[in-house]
Amino acid sequence: MVNLLQLKYARLGVRDLRSMVEEVSKPVLEELEHLLSTYGVGRARYVEILKIVFTLGKARWSEIKRGIEAKLGKIPNNALMNILRNLQDVGVLRKDSEGYYGITDPIINYAIKHYLRT
Q: What's the pTM value of the predicted model, to 2 decimals?
Protein backbone atom coordinates (compact mmCIF):
# COMPACT_ATOMS: atom_id res chain seq x y z
CA MET A 1 0.00 0.00 0.00
CA VAL A 2 1.34 3.45 -0.90
CA ASN A 3 1.37 5.91 1.97
CA LEU A 4 0.76 9.65 1.75
CA LEU A 5 4.43 10.49 2.30
CA GLN A 6 5.44 8.40 -0.72
CA LEU A 7 2.85 10.23 -2.82
CA LYS A 8 4.22 13.60 -1.69
CA TYR A 9 7.77 12.51 -2.55
CA ALA A 10 6.58 11.31 -5.95
CA ARG A 11 5.03 14.72 -6.64
CA LEU A 12 8.34 16.33 -5.71
CA GLY A 13 10.20 13.99 -8.04
CA VAL A 14 12.16 12.15 -5.35
CA ARG A 15 12.08 8.49 -4.48
CA ASP A 16 12.78 8.61 -0.76
CA LEU A 17 13.49 10.85 2.19
CA ARG A 18 17.28 10.53 1.82
CA SER A 19 17.13 11.74 -1.78
CA MET A 20 14.93 14.64 -0.76
CA VAL A 21 17.29 15.66 2.07
CA GLU A 22 20.28 15.45 -0.28
CA GLU A 23 18.54 17.64 -2.85
CA VAL A 24 17.45 20.20 -0.27
CA SER A 25 20.87 20.30 1.42
CA LYS A 26 22.77 21.21 -1.77
CA PRO A 27 21.50 24.81 -2.02
CA VAL A 28 21.92 25.14 1.74
CA LEU A 29 25.54 24.06 1.38
CA GLU A 30 26.05 26.54 -1.46
CA GLU A 31 24.76 29.34 0.76
CA LEU A 32 26.90 28.15 3.66
CA GLU A 33 29.99 27.98 1.43
CA HIS A 34 29.26 31.47 0.11
CA LEU A 35 28.91 32.77 3.67
CA LEU A 36 32.14 31.09 4.78
CA SER A 37 34.03 32.42 1.77
CA THR A 38 33.35 35.97 2.99
CA TYR A 39 35.54 35.27 6.03
CA GLY A 40 38.66 34.71 3.93
CA VAL A 41 41.54 33.26 5.93
CA GLY A 42 39.24 32.93 8.95
CA ARG A 43 37.15 30.34 7.06
CA ALA A 44 39.04 27.44 8.65
CA ARG A 45 38.02 28.62 12.12
CA TYR A 46 34.37 28.89 11.13
CA VAL A 47 34.38 25.44 9.54
CA GLU A 48 36.10 23.90 12.56
CA ILE A 49 33.59 25.45 14.95
CA LEU A 50 30.70 24.09 12.89
CA LYS A 51 32.29 20.64 12.84
CA ILE A 52 32.85 20.70 16.61
CA VAL A 53 29.26 21.69 17.31
CA PHE A 54 28.00 19.12 14.81
CA THR A 55 30.13 16.35 16.34
CA LEU A 56 29.07 17.09 19.91
CA GLY A 57 25.45 17.80 19.04
CA LYS A 58 25.62 20.87 21.22
CA ALA A 59 28.65 22.45 22.83
CA ARG A 60 29.58 25.02 25.43
CA TRP A 61 31.96 27.87 24.65
CA SER A 62 34.77 26.13 26.57
CA GLU A 63 34.33 22.89 24.61
CA ILE A 64 34.44 24.78 21.33
CA LYS A 65 37.55 26.68 22.44
CA ARG A 66 39.38 23.48 23.44
CA GLY A 67 38.39 21.77 20.21
CA ILE A 68 39.42 24.56 17.90
CA GLU A 69 42.72 25.10 19.71
CA ALA A 70 43.50 21.39 19.53
CA LYS A 71 42.97 21.45 15.78
CA LEU A 72 44.10 24.93 14.68
CA GLY A 73 46.13 26.38 17.53
CA LYS A 74 45.52 29.28 19.90
CA ILE A 75 42.52 31.52 19.31
CA PRO A 76 41.90 34.72 21.30
CA ASN A 77 38.70 34.71 23.35
CA ASN A 78 37.34 37.78 21.56
CA ALA A 79 37.94 36.19 18.15
CA LEU A 80 36.02 33.06 19.20
CA MET A 81 33.17 35.16 20.59
CA ASN A 82 32.99 37.15 17.34
CA ILE A 83 32.81 33.98 15.26
CA LEU A 84 30.10 32.49 17.46
CA ARG A 85 28.14 35.75 17.33
CA ASN A 86 28.49 35.93 13.53
CA LEU A 87 27.25 32.35 13.15
CA GLN A 88 24.29 33.16 15.40
CA ASP A 89 23.52 36.39 13.53
CA VAL A 90 23.26 34.56 10.20
CA GLY A 91 21.10 31.82 11.72
CA VAL A 92 23.51 28.88 11.52
CA LEU A 93 24.09 28.52 15.29
CA ARG A 94 21.84 29.16 18.26
CA LYS A 95 22.69 29.43 21.94
CA ASP A 96 20.22 27.93 24.38
CA SER A 97 19.36 29.08 27.88
CA GLU A 98 21.92 26.68 29.37
CA GLY A 99 24.77 28.17 27.33
CA TYR A 100 25.05 25.41 24.73
CA TYR A 101 25.56 26.22 21.06
CA GLY A 102 23.79 24.07 18.50
CA ILE A 103 23.13 23.94 14.77
CA THR A 104 19.80 25.63 14.05
CA ASP A 105 18.48 23.34 11.34
CA PRO A 106 18.64 19.62 10.52
CA ILE A 107 19.37 20.39 6.85
CA ILE A 108 22.35 22.55 7.83
CA ASN A 109 23.44 19.69 10.09
CA TYR A 110 23.23 17.27 7.15
CA ALA A 111 25.19 19.62 4.88
CA ILE A 112 27.94 19.98 7.51
CA LYS A 113 28.14 16.23 8.03
CA HIS A 114 28.21 15.19 4.39
CA TYR A 115 29.65 18.03 2.40
CA LEU A 116 31.49 20.72 4.37
CA ARG A 117 35.24 20.56 3.87
CA THR A 118 37.97 22.60 5.51
A: 0.80
